[in-house]
Design brief:
By secondary structure, the protein is of the alpha+beta class. The protein is 36% helix and 22% strand. The structure holds one RNA strand of 86 nucleotides.
Length: 850
Amino acid sequence: MERYNFKQIEKKWQSFWEKNKSFKSHIDTTKPKFYCLEMFPYPSGKIHMGHVRNYTIGDVLSRYKSMRGFNVMHPMGWDSFGMPAENAARENNLHPKEWTEKNVSVMKNQLKKLGLSIDWDREISTCSEDYYKHQQLFFIELYKKGLVYRKENYVNWDPIDETVLANEQVIDGKGWRSGAVVQRKKLNQWFFNISKFSDELLNGLDKLKTWPNKVKTMQKNWIGKSFGCEINFKIKGDLPIDKIKCFTTRPDTLFGFSFLAVSVDHPLSEFFSNDLAFKKFKDECSKTGTTEESIALGQKIGFKTNLEAFNPLNEKQKVPVYFANFVLMDYGFGAVFGCPAHDQRDLDFAIKYKIPFKTVVKPVDADKNFTVKENAYTGPGEIFNSEFLNGFKVPNESIIKTIEILEKKKLGLQKINFRLKDWGISRQRYWGCPIPIAYDKDGNVIIVPEKDLPIKLPQKINLNEKGNPLDKNIEWKKTTINGKECLRETDTLDTFVDSSWYFLRFCSPNNKEYGFNNEEINYWMPVDQYIGGVEHAILHLLYSRFFMHALSFKNENFKILEPFESLFTQGMVCHETFSDKNKKWFSPDEVETKDGKNFYLKEDPEIKIFVGPSESMSKSKRNTIDPERMIENYGADAVRFFILSDSPPEKDVQWSEQGMIASYRFIQKFWQLHNKIQKKIGIASEGSVEADTELKKYTNQLINKLNSHLSKFNYNVIIANMHETYSFLSKIIEKNISRKELLENYKKILTVLSPVIPHIISECLESLKTNVFQNWPKIDQKMLEVEKIHFVIQINGKKKGTLEVLKDIEEKTLMEMIKKNVKIYKNLNNKKIKKIFFIKNRLINILLND
RNA sequence: GCCCUCGUGGUGAAAUUGGUAGACACAAAGGACUUAAAAUCCUUGCCAUUUAUGGAGUGCCAGUUCGAGUCUGGCCGAGGGCACCA
């Protein structure tokens, strides 16, 4: 029999779709719109299995929605600025732009081979001037709205390469390339005022009903809202300061106050800049601060000053003031009041420095001698040992009432604090969007006028020099703005800025004047379904949400506050790892086995290979499978089929060559079956009512099941349904089936299988002389009804058998049947029936007396 | 340390939302077809003497219920996020 030539047929349909612009999208107000978006890829060279999974999930949904009558937009683009381009440029002596463009063309070609229903006319690339000029305009817009500012901030500085390092480039406190010990250095940098919208971003999460709770919780924790109050502590000492402000969530424990600690970066530290002992202490802090180990161990160190702080509620009580490594300058006011009895961290510190403390909260049922020793008590209870606070219920009443008292006495103010920090957007790199700012001779900030945009990156660049390449490029740096000589800002924007609005650009990819066109975004936005990896749960998704708030701020015409209506986070693609005894990694291609247990190296069978656990595919562990090779070997339909088959999309999936081959065989088998059915359609004429009804029922039930699975992303179950359908069809055509029903129902079945395996289905439909773009078939509700059901018979709660009975059977009739059924009836043992639970169309449970 | 998610055969997993546990697939074993192999098809979750029959069974222990993979409480284990956030 004829083999299914996937290479030829997949190519045929891919060019058909391309020629006919089958997936081109326009505004059409007569139809409901559906904007389906998967996170766009970074053009790193080739697509990987994670992309295959991500884009297949989105493609199945897009094709489905489109057949259901939605006006679908399904675009694709490239997140094409970023560090790897610079690294590659150094290694291969290739300009970042060329490297990126080469990768884009390779990957675009690969994506096309997957048969994705993408509207390529909307393709965008964030490194193109067409894209980033609008981003520069947005930057200026936000600047004018007061949402962008400049301040000094610490960076990781590599003294050998003279460059700023991203956190992930710092390994064990050393620069990844030079190996130099990384220093903290203060630089002037640009910030987006994301914390201005802390409350909005937090509250907005409640409206996102179809986001995974996990993601919402992560964002909630990241924003970190806490309720408390700020308190001014009077200070006594030989320095010209008289108070230090602290933020606390537990003002109710103020009578347990036993020390005051401030960050080493606190303004107070300036008075100690000539103190050698303090300098040494500060160095110690920066060292322990960088290694993760020390944070995990929670080693607390302090530097005692000669200052004393007064308890605002009890002027007689004075406590020491310390600098401490565990106090962060960028949270609250960089100072904390220490209450060791009710905060473990404070307790560790107090024990280490032998600071006396008092217990002021006791569990409700504890007596007055309750004393904290080694474990801080942070639970509920009531206040004691605290004069006029005594008896307040902890936590709610005590905190609220204490704040009231503090406010009345003008000692403190209620305050809400957020963990969320402003977004530092400056990067000292070449391959990013230039910041449209310049500085005059006096260092004043000058906004680049719109007519001078875009500020293009210089083509000529030396990436092998030390330092920031743009900063070294004097020719580019020097400019004149409105006749004045200026120096350009040489930082570029964090690439997260690029991806914070790309979904808007897809709506109007060719709009010249502005990043988007209002009419178009009002039609398409928000994204109806966003699909991507959970690794972007916080930053990318939060930044995108912020960007919408920033655009709508002081703007009547922009009302989209939440860009992504629904979010789906897919799991990763995993594979076993292979290594030799020296922990050298090998790719699956280099390894062989005969028994499935013992593995050895293909090149040298003497070398034994150890199989490690299945882990997310990564280049470093060499456990990747090349999608293009899989498509070459098995075809796109088979790859799509497999990547959805084994696990629910939100969970990790294991790549298995066996599974891949099985999917390939399914496609081949399906083609053989199609040929049989086609022949049968040619021959059959009249059929039996019985067989025809069976087919109609199966078809309608299948559609019904798929509707539900598709809407819930149960794509692995859909694959199971497809297997079942194959086996059903191969049986039904052996029966006496009519030509008319076979043709009609088979077409429906083909149509509903098409989102997963579009190439072969298109070919099948065409061979039946049918339009390849079918509407999603409607369900005939009558055909969903069943006449006969398997009724479960339980005795004393245990299943004793099933009876095939007519639907809606009455209890009486069923009991008569049970009495006639010897196998089941013998279980009754002539015992008295105590009670009967009869659940219609489900089961009957007969309880017997003992 | 805090927060979240998840524990079902040898493996990946289904389960109409409290009502037949293990659909569908992978692997392994056995069988059929074949001169043989490949391909294809069939059978097999576990224990007890069999394709008939009985029993146990969804991490562990309790509870609610006629009935629990599903609900409640406690414990154990795995994965993920944040990490001195005052």
